[in-house]
Amino acid sequence: MKKNLQILFLIMFLISIFIVFSDKISFLPERFKKSFSFGMDLAGGTILTYQIDFEKAKNSNRGQVLEQTKDMIERRINFLGVAEYFVSFSESGRILIEIPNIKNPEEAKKVIGETPFLEFKIPIDDKTFISSGLTGRYLENAEVGQDPVSLEPVVLLSFNKEGSLIFKNLTEKYLGKPIAIFLDNQIISAPIVKEVITNGKAVINSNGKFSFQEAKLLANRLKQGSLPVPIYLVGESVIDPLLGLKFLDLSLKGALLGILLVLIFMVVVYKFNGFLADIALIFFIFYNLALYKMLGVTISLASLAGLVLAVGMAVDANILIFERMKEERAKNLKDSQVIEEGFKRAFPSIRDSNMTTIISSLIMYFLATSFVKGFALTLFFGVLISFLTAVFFSRYLLETFYFKNGFYKK
Asked: What are the structural domains of the chain?
């Protein structure tokens, strides 16, 4: 059993090291590489301020408009693929949006504040078009596809029942003639109707002007529809990633210094016991970092604070165990009894302190802002992993070295 436990911890440690340094391994295929995700305070980002135009809300409930707008904006930010963003609203309709690690603020502004106006028009002559009545309001879905002939990206449209009927009537009436697709009053394409379309499907083909990312962005904007009320950009600021890198460098150095001091303290005070605890602590740190990468946890200053606090709790558990072992050793017990009783008597205190911390971190995560959520999340994972390393792995190390080498002497 102990041999199996040794192999398990070693395999987990090696896998953790591989995950942590995977993005540094040059010969590794790109699909296996994954970088850490850093928050705005460490990687830079964009702060956008918008104002809701309540005059266009008509008789709608102001609180309901705020909630609908917030929900729509958060879903649009999710499309950007960023984490730990922050959105706050005031009763006056002011919206503050903080988006970390965004390299193109203009893209963020387009995704958040703009909705393209899609319209199908019928040409009268070479220069004039009239509206067909089919617009984006009838759109049910939009997704990226590929032209089977040119292999270029296209946007596939699906209309609802009412829109499908309008589209069917248009293709019947204008069979063999062009129907132009306009986006924000700019013509995109004017395909010739070759057959009556009854399934409510249409294609936006830009004749080679779309990149895949542009097609994806357009499909997303069309699918999401419009905000419940207009919003206007009233402020914008960008945190330079270079400044964020300086914060990151200082933060990592601070965190490493704190952990190093803890490691030294354990060896100075608890001698060989402290050395074994340090080994467990190093395993603990790599387990956490690997978990952050696998789950995409955003690392911010708050997240690092949660990790350092979890390190303190992991050390605290070992200190409780070692102090109990000192008490049991004073009773002239056998080596096996010293370890057994030390862990047995320290376990209730470790369990209770960890449980209260876990409950507190869960409350913070679900009720607090995104900034505090980063702290709560890393603290939660850290406490869970520290419980495993302090109670099980530390005990395994103690029993292995003491039983095999007889370090306890009466």
From this structure: 2-34+240-405 (1.20.1640.10), 45-112 (3.30.70.3220), 118-224 (3.30.1360.200)
